[in-house]
Amino acid sequence: MFPRDFAWGAATSAYQIEGGWQADGKGPSIWDTFCHKKGGVSGNQNGDVACNSYELWEKDLECIQQLGLTHYRLSLSWARLLPDGTTQNVNLRGVQYYNRVIDDLLACNVYPMVTLYHFDLPQAIQDLGGWKSPGVATLFDNYAKFCFQTFGDRVKLWITINEPQVCAKLGHEVGIHSPGLKEKGTAAYLVGHNMLRAHSMAWHSYNSAYRATQKGAVSLALNSDWFEPLDPGYCEDIIATERALAFTLGWFAWPVFVTGDYPEIMRSAIESQSKMMGHNGDLRLPTFSNDDPPILGTADFFALNYYTSRKVKSGGCSEQMLSMKRDLDAEEVLDPSWPICGVPWLAVVPHGLRKLLKYIKDVFNNPTIYITENGFAQVGPLQIEDSDRCEFYKRTISEVVKAIQEDGVNVCGYFAWSLIDNFEWADGFSVRFGLFHIDFSNAELRRTIYWSGQEYAKIISKYKCARPT
Questions:
Q1: How confident is the model at residue 249 (pLDDT cuts 50, 70, 90)?
Q2: What pLDDT is attached to residue 469?
Q3: Are 36 and 22 in contact (CB under 8 A)?
């Protein structure tokens, strides 16, 4: 039913769980700055302590073992390892921390999947222009090479950048994520471009200097909803759905997996709006330079973060200025039959994951796929007996089975988001995705397994026992 070496995992990220925001020589990140400004996060909460995994790593490891995971996805804090973002200043205490995490996982027969960048740029690099600056790509490549050299003898699955679409759009267009910029219609495309350049440089560095000896694999984690036309018989809704997929998944997947350039439907939509609005400056969606290493083929697997689905109808944008929303010229609609879990945007649509997996197989040349994030949110009163989330995991895994067996999709792993309740960005601690609950009002930060954690452990045990020999 699942491949013998199928990865059963859970995921976290450094800023969301570690705490220790200035412990042992760590430098500040853009999320430290964003949270400390006040006003950007629910309840003015922050990740200064979070789950305190920097001090309580052994408790996280116990959770991992209790679930029976084969893999654990974590991210490295760039600012913990290199406080000013450069290899001129290495924080050995940070290196020691991640060495311990990696070694402990392997001692428990759990394989790490390591993300180099999960939203938390060193503030020192932001001060130089951040992801808007072309030079950030070289700084990221140097950081990546440092990590490959330091940890690559043991880490065999690497993610360069997590959700570049979210970083670009929410951090630089909408402004609800750090660094909190609202430079509509321009900054996000530039940021996405530099993230792709940075990813490509890091992949080529690994390929040329480390792959032969370390024998690992490198990709980037792309988020996408599944999109369907609101009216399947209306041509304009069908085209708008194609644009929605292009502006979300295709923005990064098309250059890496298909052509080495952005989707034509995306570029033409942006250029059309530029002309309509009288924009006479540089192309808002940049072009790739021959001076950079080629982007096409710079992923050894497809890493997908999927949470929800949307219906799409054409039009719906009333903004009278350049913006990503105007470029997209489409409205995303929730099907009223889809239940909502926790936050308003999170409709529960497990069958959308199967459809998206089939789409990726057909459009992006049948890649090996790891589902690197997927989860179900809880808000309001605590429910340890979270039967709805138990049902969600059963239904979702069932859809993955169908994608593998009936659609022929090469899915090699599934990572639940998240191992533990954590700091959920602008929502702070008000939204809970964990397989283990953490009481953030208690200094002990005790980990307590949800029913859904027990259910996920049963699912893992069931399929591990059913593996073909």
A1: very high
A2: 55
A3: no
Taking the whole predicted model, whether its pTM rises above 0.90 is answered as yes
280 pLDDT above the threshold of 90 = no
Q: Which of 163, 242, 331, 455 is catalytic?
A: 163
Q: Contact, 12 vs 75, CB < 8 A? A: yes
Q: Which two structure tokens, joined as six digits, stand for 462?
A: 């069931």
Q: In what order do the strands lie in the sheet with 330-333?
A: 226-229, 309-314, 330-333
For the beta carbon of residue 446, count every other beta carbon within 10 angstroms.
12
183 is catalytic: no
C-alpha torsion angle, residues 304, 311, 264, 369 (rounded to 10): 20
DSSP for 82-107, written as a single string: STTSSTTS--HHHHHHHHHHHHHHHH
Q: Any bridge partners for residue 217, and if so which? A: 157
Task: Assess whether 242 carries a catalytic annotation.
Answer: no
Per the listing, tokens 């639940």 go with: 416
The alpha carbon of residue 423 and the mean position of all alpha carbons in its chain are separated, in whole angstroms, by 15
Q: The tokens of 297 are what?
A: 């083929």
Contact between 86 and 51 under an 8 Å Cβ cutoff? The reply is no
> By CB neighbour count within 10 A (0-12 exposed, 13-18 middle, 19+ buried), where does 339 fall?
exposed
Cα 60–chain centre separation: 20
d(CA 427, CA 112): 27
Which one is catalytic: 173, 331, 373, 455? 373
